[in-house]
Amino acid sequence: MALAEDRLMEEAGFRMSEATAGDFFALLKPRVMSLVVFTAFVGLVAAPVAINPLLAMIAILAIAIGAGASGALNMWYDADIDAVMTRTAGRPVPAGRVTPGEALSFGLVLSVLSVMTLGVLVNWLSASLLAFTIFFYAVIYTMWLKRWTPQNIVIGGAAGAIPPVIGWAAVTGSVSLESVILFLIIFLWTPPHFWALALFKSDDYARAGIPMMPNVAGQASTRRQIFAYALILAPVGVLPWALGYTTAGYGVVSAVLGAGFVWYAWKVLAMAADDRAMKPAKALFGYSLLYLFAIFAAYLVDCVVGRALMMGGI
């Protein structure tokens, strides 16, 4: 009897979910979420006024849930191209462990929950920025930019760059130049980071029909653009010190990190056209992850230590 009912449900287009809690957690893109949470936390701590610790925890949790919602909606819509890319074929939706309907429902529920929680319990400016981020990533980037233009990462990078601004707004109820500079660091970091990945994963993107820069403009043009972005990113990373927001300690760390980014980008620029191993591109991709974590960690430490010294009267 039970088998007959299962067969009827499958014929009608329904099936029992095989998803586990781990599959739904994977929909949240936990690696991306961790970066979002960290940069948002830095923005929250860097804000010049204090926030109730409980509200701070609620804000970070809401931002994390919103980031996860974006990931779930992205995986729902991109299931077709994820299925043909070796890097993403094992994701829950293309692998068949989570149905598209489940992923969509999960993403929508989390989106509403995160925005309403942040708005009601913290403030509506930060909630509005979070809502915009989810919409921009899930609709503007995922449904449009990603499949239609090689500038997908350039424009779409705005979604990943907003979290520190949300963290700042959660504390202050406003947006400042300092938070915008944090946004710019991530925004300018995004193209060289993802184009480095696209250089050694170009076959994957070609199979999926995604117009990443190496597949559209060619590797030589992509390498030049990576280097150009590195040259812009390096001084922008030092701006917080130059404008007096941090101490010289951050200035030195950010300058060294920026010089390293330019060096790795130069190695990519100088890479031989027939270099199939793509070692310089892989090295830049790895270093770019270190760069973003390290520069925001340096900013965080500078803020915490600077305030401790001020409170101690030193």
TrEMBL record:
Q: Which HAMAP family match?
A: CyoE_CtaB
A Gene Ontology molecular function term for this protein is:
protoheme IX farnesyltransferase activity
Q: What is its main location?
A: membrane
Q: Which domain of life is it from?
A: Bacteria
Instruction: Give the catalytic activity.
Output: heme b + (2E,6E)-farnesyl diphosphate + H2O = Fe(II)-heme o + diphosphate
Gene name for this UniProt entry: cyoE
Q: What are the protein's UniProt keywords?
A: Cell membrane, Heme biosynthesis, Membrane, Transferase, Transmembrane, Transmembrane helix
Under what name is this protein listed? Protoheme IX farnesyltransferase
Provide the species name: Mesorhizobium plurifarium
The pathway entry for this protein reads as: Porphyrin-containing compound metabolism; heme O biosynthesis; heme O from protoheme: step 1/1
InterPro entries from the UniProt entry:
Protohaem_IX_farnesylTrfase, UbiA_prenyltransferase, UbiA_prenylTrfase_CS, UbiA_sf
What does the record say about its membrane topology?
Multi-pass membrane protein
Q: Where in the cell is it found?
A: Cell membrane
Chain's role? Converts heme B (protoheme IX) to heme O by substitution of the vinyl group on carbon 2 of heme B porphyrin ring with a hydroxyethyl farnesyl side group.
Quote the record's miscellaneous comment.
Carbon 2 of the heme B porphyrin ring is defined according to the Fischer nomenclature.
Q: Where are the transmembrane segments?
A: 32-51, 57-77, 98-118, 124-145, 152-171, 177-200, 226-243, 249-269, 281-301
Is Transferase included in the keywords of this UniProt record? yes
GO CC field: plasma membrane
The similarity annotation says: Belongs to the UbiA prenyltransferase family. Protoheme IX farnesyltransferase subfamily.
Q: Which Pfam families match?
A: UbiA
A single Gene Ontology biological process assigned to it is: heme O biosynthetic process
Q: What is its EC number?
A: 2.5.1.141
